[in-house]
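thread from #wetlab-drylab

HS: before we spend reagent money on co-crystallization trials with flavin-adenine dinucleotide, can we at least see a predicted complex? here's what I'd submit
DV: go for it
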Amino acid sequence: MQPNLLNATNLRIPARLTAPEPGWVISADVIVVGSGVAGLTAALRLRQRVDRVLLVTKTVLSEGSTQWAQGGIAAALDPADSADEHLADTLVAGAGVCDEEAVRVLVSEGPARVRELATLGMKFDRGPDGEISLTREGGHGRDRIAHAGGDATGKEVSRALIAALDLALIAVKEDPGIEVLEHALVVDLLQDGDSRVCGVTLHVIGEGQMDGVGAARARAVVLATGGIGQVYSSTTNPSVATGDGVAAALRAGAVVADLEFVQFHPTVLWLGEGARGQQPLLSEAMRGEGAFLVDGDGVRFMAGVHDLADLAPRDIVAKAIVARMAQTDTDHVYLDARHLGKKFLEKRFPSILARCRELGFDPVSELLPVAPAQHFASGGVRTDLDGRSTLAGLYACGEVSCTGVHGANRLASNSLLEGLVFASRIADDITSRLSAGDLASADPLVRTEDTTLVARKERTAVQRAMTLGTGAVRSADSMAHAAKNLQIIADSTPGSTPDPDSWETSNLLHVGQLLTAMAALREETRGGHIRSDFTVRDDAHWLGHIYAVREEDGSITTSFHPITTSFHPITTSFHPITPQVL
Ligand SMILES: Cc1cc2nc3c(=O)[nH]c(=O)nc-3n(C[C@H](O)[C@H](O)[C@H](O)COP(=O)(O)OP(=O)(O)OC[C@H]3O[C@@H](n4cnc5c(N)ncnc54)[C@H](O)[C@@H]3O)c2cc1C
């Protein structure tokens, strides 16, 4: 089926961010940008067969969403489970717009990647038979969440993931074939005259020669820069999640897809009006154990909204909370866990209790103020099954990418798995292309025209515009308002000093502008895209992806790409994907 051009947006995105000319140059075979599950996996696997891998990361190696993951990693490891069942659950969660072939790859290659992680040293919980213990999360029809530290606490799971990460970090640090640059923020992509990506410009807070803005050149660049959470006033994502990879790829002319599908977690601790940035997550498991939502008058408002009441899918709960906040003119509701008792809460949720108490709330005796906050970006840099973007030489994996596995709504614990599976595929693809002479080195064009920079002081204004206009529930009016406010920011910030804060703020603006434009086009409610003016899913018109691409003149072209595949069991039909319209 052919893509349809959608209404043009009025948006204009510049070609690059204002930055000093590179004062130094380094080179490698492959550059990996980001050190979460996706970047580390790609770097470690590439290193097995490529001579020089450069891993750059904005702060320190361990920083990123990966270290905050609580639940675990989903994979059909139980003999009674199957990749087909994992596939079916993922497609349901994705609300009709997953790319089925990409999901097939995820669920069929996932178990091997999880076992490799165990080989690497991750201490998964195991049963008496020595097999990895599995638990269940919302949306999964089977026990398939590999975890560590017992079922008892999210903290134990998190500790096990960090332990594996630490081992990966040590392996990376001890390997002379991988050069690691910490405190290195990638600003933009370098491209030759044919738009082939052949490196990055980056700002390093370093020592000696390699300090300030430089250029790193390579035959392939892998973006693994994580999510976009900081586009919003409050998010569960850490401070490094400023959408840098999506913004840089967009400016370079790569196709970006599905940005409108943003998962908001319904129960994030509300720390007051002025609270900004990363906020503490109150796990779904609390509601799983019997905690429930009430409004300021103590009314349990989820009853009657959905059969599963407080345990309804995330998007439904988030939507109901936003509606209740509007009705009662407040900016939060409450989670009531008091009836679960001190003994149970302390045993079952020790880390959540500790964090709440640190912040002055005692779940044993008090209601916990909660509000939805941004949690996960399903969209990003559009890739095929080997992680290739639409630009030669550019790959993307992990949360920055849009492989199509999440559709409109991510199934719980599928994102760490996505990072593992697709980073590995990228490493394999780059390796074979390098040995086939397929990824030639190229000389970047020196470009200084069409640059921009947004002052760091505008960060809060961008976040506010996005939260109010293109947040958990949107409408044409709210998004028009957001687009207008974002454009005012874009038009009014000449003369800023280039520094990491202003580069990040510029990226937040560009991602926010594009996300708002794409969300305004999709006139329906689906998964993480909830509209108050188009409240139902509209398969007749919107069963597919929206793509956006920056043209040479800075304008944005958007197009609609219908989903063309239908479910068929993995056992009888597994084919490599042919990307739809890339
Ligand atoms: C609180 C929380 C709980 C979660 N729980 C789970 C769970 O239980 N299971 C699950 O599957 N998923 C979970 N997720 C989602 C999952 O953790 C993420 O989607 C996943 O870890 C993303 O991995 P990544 O490698 O793509 O990005 P990240 O881990 O975010 O890493 C991105 C890296 O890129 C670097 N970077 C960013 N910009 C630049 C730049 N300009 N230059 C250089 N480096 C840059 C960052 O510093 C970082 O190192 C959770 C997320 C959060 C926030």
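DV: Residues 456 and 502 are 4 Å apart (CA to CA).
HS: ok that's useful, forwarding to the group
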